[in-house]
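Lab notebook: predicted structure, single chain.

Context: the supervisor wants predicted structures on file for every construct in the current expression panel, including those that have not yet been purified. This is the next one on the list. No modifications to the sequence; it matches the entry in the shared construct table.
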Amino acid sequence: MTTAGAGQGGGSTGPIVKTRSGEVRGTVVDAVAVFKGIPFAAPPFGNHRLRPPQPVEPWSGVRDATAFGAAPPALPLPPEVAALIPDAGVVPGEDCLNLNIWTPKVGAVALPVMVWITGGFFEFGFGASYDGRRFARDGVVCVTFNYRAGAEGFLDLGDGLANVGLLDQVAALEWVRDNIATFGGDPGNVTVFGESAGAMSIATLLAMPRAQGLFRRAILQSGAANAVTPTAAAQRIARGLAARLGVPPTRDAIAAVPVERLLQAQEELKVDLEADRGRWGPEVAAGGLPWQPSVDGDVVPDRPIDRITAGAGAGIDLIVGTNVDEGRVSLVATGMADRIPVEAVTATAATFGLPADIAVAAYRAVHPDGGNGDLLAALQTDGFWRVPALRLADAHADAPAATYMYEFAWRSPAFGGLLGACHGLEIAFVFDTLDPSFRPMLGPALGDHPPQQLADAMHAAWVGFATSGDPGWPRYDLPRRATMRFDTTSEVVDDPRAAERELWDGVL
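Prediction complete. Output recorded below exactly as produced.
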């Protein structure tokens, strides 16, 4: 580790590391070297807007890397979501394709590397909401980064330039491959991990030819390999956006629209989707994600789950899992849980391809004391998160690389306990950032005394997996389906909730 005089911005002390584009100066926090806002691609605006990421322009001198960089353009979070997400004080800006690093020691010491891919419905970005200090404390180089979401990242006009947000992710991973050794990391031992849209991105990367060789292991939290939009539906969405903007459905015409107007049109299109989901096709209707990756035939050659079933990603060690009550957060936080008619439950079952009456009766039998909101949350949990995760684990179970399954079962005390083990609740335990000083993701849902022993268990499992490929419980296989259930007391269970799983046989 070296120090030097003042460079471009920032103070005069702190660790300096040389990247392929130039030198950066970070800070030291809790004996961890921290570097923030390092660009891994050129600003995606001007001639680069709505197009694949381009190389960084090298700089001279020492670049300050002591504060988070700009965020990509995004809509404001819905109020009920914003109340649960820490505000890192980062504002959107053009130089938004940047990353952050926490390392216990700069230099060529070949530590395992963990690269976090944030969620956000493929519409929002939370890249600066995570703190990798605890991973670095435990001998791991932790990296987080931004990528373009919404139409900026996933506009598919059929012009051969779709899924540029995924290409941002590839560019970040290529930067890690080329530069992480000087930060103490081993480019041959990279684990990608992510939640929600981040996990769905990872499943897509598993099946993407352009991502081959960029990571060795993967952890998917609440996301699997089913969340892609067929080409025709994606292009229908793109034409709908252009119509909202009043411009031709071409990349140049849409790129000429101001960012604020584009985001407004995205929101208007989302309202249309909620009003008439069937108009956009079943893949979009089931998840309500108009800007998820599309099967463009190039960046995403086919549905990721089909490619993984055929052997893609067979050499990648895999952990996949979900939370027991994924679907409760939106219903409870919005106050809708007690106002759900039975028709909404029936319609949701049909959207997922289940025989509606049979499915509703089966879920009511499993939840005899639950109301319609409870049934809807259970259906959404299984249909959008748990069953796709099982499909991915099943597809990978016979691969040469290992497959592990988990579920997160600790129930939040917030909202009178009604949130349950909701979507996103596990993140603070994975990062071991329960201390309020970390501003943990979904912090208000953690309550006053979240169980540190659960964070100890999950964080250690993730570190162990990234280090050696073994998280500490049996591999997933058929028919046992060994699953680590994380709770205040964690244990391995075989084939949890088998009755509901069997209901979905042949579906999704």
